[in-house]
Amino acid sequence: MNLTQLEARQEANVYLLNALTSRLQILEATMVYDQDDRTKNNSENNNKSRKKIKKERKKNAGGGGGGKKKKDEKSIYFSPPPLSSASIPKDFKGIHVDIDKDLMGIDSDVQKRLRRLCNDIPVPSAKFKRAPSDYYDWDLEQRRDCLQAPHINYLCKTMIMRNTKTNATDCSDRTNSKYYMIVIQYTAKMNKEKLQKIVRFLRPEKERMSKKSVNMRVASPEDGVMLSGFGHNAVTPLGMAVKVPMIVSHRVLELPYIWLGGGEVDVKLRMSISDLCRVFNPIIGDLG
Q: How far is it, in rounded angstroms, from Cα 264 to Cα 135?
């Protein structure tokens, strides 16, 4: 290889080295740019996350966005079925009761009075059924079969509760009543705190009773008889001696009808949910 060839080879190597060096610088610059861009994006995302967390904390604390009280107020109450579902049949002439089959041949004065009420109000879905005297010794499955109900969830109880802390002396104001009638399934457990919240939130926020003004307790048997006009364990919403505001568990809205007490210990009353809501205009809430 002569001198001219060596010089040409050397120039080619220098050119290649310069090209590689330039390429390396470009790659390094690109990496730095990408790193800066990722850092910027991470910073922006972190800022957004922090803002979102602050917003949620503020909302949960009751500030902005409507506040927690309004959210709670909406979540504890439920709307009744539309009135169209409770329409009274045009050809309704009164409920039918087979004295021998439905009432075991015993047609008491209480049953006659309740039937008249069902015809006059009217309550087209009403059906009375007398059960054996040991009915309350049975489990819920046996009671269900006796009443021919599809499920034990159809079996409900009616309780009269008293607010021991209220200044109310009667039941004329349902937003501050001395007593409330509770309708709830046997399969459900009533939550006292939820019941008290339902009662408190019946009034607007500025007029709302304090927590210390609401303390719900089961009314005494004597109070139950005085308010209902029926014997112990025979309470039914129909024909109450005193009109007591009714609070119904929202869970019964899932059912077409329920079974309640029928004015006597051994008698049960079936009534559709639509009729229950139309006749008694109950407060419907989450009782637990």
A: 12
CB 149 within 8 A of CB 269: no
Task: Supply angle C-alpha 202, 232, 101, rounded to 5.
Answer: 105
As a three-state string, the secondary structure of the chain is CCHHHHHHHHHHHHHHHHHHHHHHHHHHHHHHHHHHHHHHHHHHHHHHHHHHHHHHHHHHCCCCCCCHHHHHHHHCECCCCCHHHHCCCCCCCCCCCCHHHHCCCCCCHHHHHHHHHHHHCCCCCCEEEECCCCHHHCCHHHHHHHHCCCCHHHEEEEEEEEECCCCCCCCCCCCCCCEEEEEEECCCCCCHHHHHHHHHCCCCHHHCCCHHHCCEEECCHHHHHHHHCCCCCCCCCCCCCCCCCEEEEHHHHHCCEEEEECCCCCEEEEEEHHHHHHHHCCEEECCC
pTM: 0.74
- 259: Cβ–Cβ under 8 A, 6 or more apart, which residues? 129, 147, 149, 154, 155, 156, 268, 269, 270
Q: How many Cβ atoms from other residues are within 10 Å of residue 196's Cβ?
A: 19
Comparing C-alpha atoms, which of 122, 244, 119 is closest to residue 183? 244
* pLDDT (mean) for 74-80: 84
Q: What is the pLDDT of residues 161-198, one digit of tens each?
A: 999 999 999 999 999 999 999 999 999 999 999 999 99
Q: What is the pLDDT of residues 233-256, one digit of tens each?
A: 899 999 999 999 999 999 999 999
